[in-house]
Amino acid sequence: NQDAAVLAAAWGVNDNAMVHYLQRVAAKPGALGAVNNVMQLGTQLARAEGRPLNLGHLKAAWADLMPEIAL
What we know:
mainly alpha; about 70% helix; globular
């Protein structure tokens, strides 16, 4: 999903694995809104740890936001 890749770039995400994960998020209910929510929460999780945003933060954010939908 190119829109998810553009949104990821707007958030400063250029890691291929993270972009691919966000594209998978965009294919689920909520589409780009879900991507934005995952980025917001993932960024908060990373800041709380004092670490750069990584794929683990995105996965943890998805699990918190949509625990009933596996990704």
